[in-house]
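Lecture 7 notes. Example A: sequence first, then its structure tokens.
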Amino acid sequence: MDERTAEFYLEQLEYNYTFLGQNRIPIDNIAPIDKGTSSHLSFCSSDKREDIEAILNSNSGIILCKKNIVDVIRQKNKFISSNSSLPKLFVFVDNPRLVFIKIARLMKDHKDNRKGVSKHAIIADSAKIGRDCYLGDLAIVGEGCIVGDNTIIDSRIVLKNSIVGNNCTLQSGSIVGEDGFAFERDNNMNLEKFPHYGKVIIKNNIEIFANCSIARGSLTNTVIEEGTKIDALCHIAHNVHIGKNTQITAGVVVGGSTIIGNNCWLGLNSTIKHKIKIGDDVIVGSGSSVIQNVEDKDIVAGNPAKSIKHKINISDDKLFLMGGQSNENRNEEHRQTFQKKDYSIKLKGLTYLYILIGTLLTTA
């Protein structure tokens, strides 16, 4: 089997797929659907009419598409292929974007293989560094810090009072483990700083992007569970606990002692009040201010943030990509909602979709 074909990569990944077209086209590179050529792999995760037209008119030789449009593509492609000499292969899968990512990794070997310690890095005598790690220029690993195996601590990172797990990446400029912001006034209104004795615990397979600030705990630890990703310019305050596989996009501020569940999505520049709890599979719209607890699988937006999950019309695949919510649960919630109350979704939905538009764009 040619190692550059779609079939070769899909067999490695063990995904279910359906082919339409010439399945022996070699893949030389990846490209956006509107910029590809005959040997490029592209994808489209939409089933909208205009996107189907973009798929059919693309010059990319191999295109990953959603399974539910196979009949539409088959019917329309008969006419297009009869008027074009370009070889083309349509590959129908459940999640084209995910399969594209997986194939791109196999093709390009995106894994960051940097290892070693820069001569300009500073490591405290009591710090422990695992195997096959990388420490960049001016990285500082403070007293008592622990860094796990295969972890990248990039340039100008400051680690204090922290334990970092295996296979993590901390991008340049982040500061992890400084004291949090907590004061008490005395009788003369002077501010007395609350003591901080906790750590920052960063579990395995976590990525922290550039210029973030993560504060150590005061009397307990600040904890980030396995698989979570934190975008640039975020602030995580002291004693915060963030669950597994949660995505925190750029500019988010999380107040102290807040608990955030698993598989959540926090939209751009949202603010989470201190001492509240956000459940699992929650989506927070861009620019929202969350000031009260949020239940599992809810979608909130606005200032102050309120639940909008029954008032919007967003495709289940978008919700799944952001919050990990299952299509089956979403469909059942919609059925129950319509039985209880007749929402004017088309009218109200425009307002709430406008609130969430920044959040949706970050999945592109």
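Example B, a different protein, same format:
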Amino acid sequence: MRRRWLGPTQPWWGAAFTAPVLVLLVCFKFWPMSYAAWLSLTNASLTDRARRFIGVSNYVRLSHDTTFIGALETTARYVGATIAVSMVLGLALAVLINQKVPARGVFRTLLFLPAVVPLIVVPILWQFLFHPYGLVNNALKALGLHPVNWLLSPQGAVGALVVATAWRLTPLCMVIYLAGLQSIPGELYEAAKVDGAGAVRRFQSITLPMLKPTLLVVVVFAITLTVQNFVLALVMTGGGPDNASTTLSLFVYQTGFLGFQMGYASAAALVMLLIIVAFTVVSLRAFRIEE
């Protein structure tokens, strides 16, 4: 009886091994989220220790805040464009480097390098590239196009953020796609070739359907990473010009830590969390896998 109770088949062994991780999740994830939800219902401020319960007043205020609404619109454009570019380029690169070509490992390493660049270095690097006399405008001049003041124009600032984020996100998507491509049985492609299917037909009928689980992972990963990212906007543009590049995460940071309105910032953060959850649910339904 003692051997059976202490044996490895007992279910409480699983709970014992996962307990440290569960404690970390409770301390650094669930408790802060619950505390932020409570703060969003108060007038909490960093300059005043007295807090008063105000119900949903912060959320009502958000619905009338033009800066917050503008941040939502900017985030939608920024996230949508970044994910579209990263997913398409990541898949294209994954398909290319999945082919049997000489020095394939070298190409994979070089293409993945942007993903290992420290996050704080990325906006500084792209600030130089998007400078009025930087490499991007010099390339435009060489093509006979007019230079653009990227970081000081409303449309250019958001476009610069999209390019900088996609530059770092695309290699991560590429690696996930590559793992999915390598899990597809080669016999399927051989059978399709025997039946006379061309490369495009094989991609449409075999690659894309078999990559559905991978596409779901890429979409959820890209949405979560992009919506929460505020370092690029903070360093590259500071949210300017005239809040044109202020994303939702940057709005939360500026409101809470620069404006000292922690209750109001917590309400905005909860809205951001709900947006991520909503996008995740939509992605789960869109990429539902048929048995």
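Note on Example B: The CA atoms of residues 152 and 241 lie 6 Å apart. The chain has a mean pLDDT of 87.
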